[in-house]
Amino acid sequence: MDTKTVKAICLKTADYLDFDKMLLLYGLDTGKISAHIKGVKKPQAKLKFAAQQFCFGEYQLSEKNGRFLVVNCTEIESFFDLRNNIDAYTCACVMTEFVSVIGQENEPNASLFLLLIKSLLKLAEGVTPKLALTKFLLDAIKIAGFGLSFDKCNCCSSTVFSKLYIDKINGGAVCQNCKSGICTPLSPAVLNCFKQVDNTSLERITVLKIDIYLNEMLIILSSYIENLIKKLNSIQFLF
Ligand SMILES: [Zn+2]
């Protein structure tokens, strides 16, 4: 039986047998991994923390016939306090759901891994949850290959346009001449907010005062992701 240690975050958990759980982990060097963890529903289980969603730690896994069993875990950050704020918790769920959709087994993606950890840390610090989520989704769709650029048309590269539209079939933001039938127009105010979020690093995101536009921005991003990638079920609980 081989044993390895992976730095990973728990994206989601599911009950399994009477006292066990199945974990979907996302590892820095491994991508997605499903792992079985035994006995964690018993009251005194010492690895109970490792079977919590958002637990970030060094998971020690043993492998047998291609199946992984968690044999130990050293916690790095539990992110447990995210559960004290319903918006922060829901935004964290959307982030982990996105990574579970985009992430692949045996395909590590350090950019996506670090984006998730840094974004969860921002949520834990108390940044406006929907602002942190908007920044996360803009960066995450770039990693996924469907990034939005707000200063030129994604189709003809024109930088002179009266309006930009989100293209939900081909991806990207396009001008009035390139838009197809399934496009969402961006109002000048929302376009300006998207530009600001896109041009501001996650570290400095709190300087932005755009709270009244965040719902509209997230609805646009949610619909874009649903059309081009997959529906994010947890995002509906934000509105
Ligand atoms: Zn164009």
Characterise the protein shown here.
With 239 residues, the chain is an alpha+beta fold. It folds into two domains: 2-77, OB fold (Dihydrolipoamide Acetyltransferase, E2P) (Beta Barrel), CATH 2.40.50; 81-238, de novo design (two linked rop proteins). 31% of the residues lie in helices and 25% in strands. It has five helices and eight strands. It has a five-stranded mixed beta barrel. It is elongated, with a radius of gyration of 20 Å. The N and C termini lie far apart (47 Å). Zinc ion is lined by residues 153, 155-156, 158, 174-175, 177-178. Zinc ion (ZN) binds next to strand 7.
Side-by-side strand order of the widest sheet: 1-2-3-5-4
Largest sheet: 5 strands, mixed, barrel
Shape: elongated
N-to-C span: 47 Å
Q: What order do the helices and strands follow?
A: EEEEEHHHEEEHH
Number of domains: 2
Bound molecules: zinc ion
Number of strands: 8
Secondary-structure content class = alpha+beta
Number of helices: 5
Q: Assign the CATH superfamily of the largest domain.
A: Recombination protein O, C-terminal domain
Task: List low-pLDDT spans.
Answer: none
Please compute the radius of gyration using only Cα atoms.
Answer: 20 Å
In helices, the fraction of residues equals 25-40%
Mean pLDDT: 96
CATH topology of the largest domain: de novo design (two linked rop proteins)
State the CATH class of the largest domain: Mainly Alpha
Summarize the structure.
The chain is an alpha+beta fold. The chain has five helices and eight strands; from the N terminus they run βββββαααβββαα.
Break the fold down into its secondary structure elements and pairings:
Blueprint: E1 2-16, E2 20-27, E3 31-37, E4 56-64, E5 67-77, H1 86-102, H2 110-125, H3 129-143, E6 164-167, E7 173-175, E8 183-185, H4 188-199, H5 214-228
Parallel strand pairs: 3-5
Antiparallel strand pairs: 1-2, 1-4, 2-3, 4-5, 6-7, 6-8
The protein binds zinc ion.
